[in-house]
């Protein structure tokens, strides 16, 4: 919901694809293991995980989420904030 121009997200996905990088979480990835690994990130603090979301070229938003909400979003395959 943060990206005003959906073509920006499409351009990022295309670029990542050209670099042979994933744009979706693999089906075999264990959601719990992913979130547990994020617990070691320096942006995690007191049960909150701070995600850095690109919204336009040169513009990002920091979205703090409670770990429980992150677990729900990852399980649903949705983008936060």
Please describe what this structure looks like.
There is one protein chain. With 81 residues, this protein is α+β, with helices and mostly antiparallel strands. It has helices at residues 6-18, 31-38, 67-76; strands at residues 44-45, 48-56, 59-66. It contains three helices and three strands; from the N terminus they run H-H-E-E-E-H. A three-stranded antiparallel β-sheet has the order 1-2-3. Strand 1 (44-45) and strand 2 form a beta hairpin.
Main attributes?
about 80 residues, alpha+beta, three-stranded antiparallel β-sheet, 3 strands, globular
Record the SSE blueprint.
Blueprint: H1 6-18, H2 31-38, E1 44-45, E2 48-56, E3 59-66, H3 67-76
Largest sheet: 3 strands, antiparallel
| Order of SSEs | HHEEEH
Separation, N- and C-terminal Cα atoms: 6 Å
Strand content: 15-25%
* Overall 3D shape: globular
**Residues in helices, as a percent range:** 25-40%
Radius of gyration over C-alpha positions, nearest whole angstrom: 14 Å
Low-confidence stretches: none
Arithmetic mean pLDDT? 79
| Strands side by side in the biggest sheet | 1-2-3
How many individual helices?
3
What's the count of strands?
Answer: 3
SS content category: alpha+beta
In short:
By secondary structure, the chain is of the alpha+beta class. It has three helices and three strands. The longest helix has 13 residues, at 6-18.
């Amino acid at each position: 919901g943060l990206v005003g121009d959906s073509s920006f997200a499409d351009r990022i996905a295309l670029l990542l694809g050209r670099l042979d990088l994933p744009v979706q979480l693999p089906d075999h990835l264990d959601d719990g293991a992913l979130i547990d690994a994020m617990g070691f990130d320096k942006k995690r603090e007191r049960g909150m995980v701070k995600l850095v979301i690109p919204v336009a070229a040169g513009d990002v938003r920091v979205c703090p989420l409670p770990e429980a909400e992150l677990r729900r979003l990852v399980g649903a395959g949705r983008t936060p904030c």
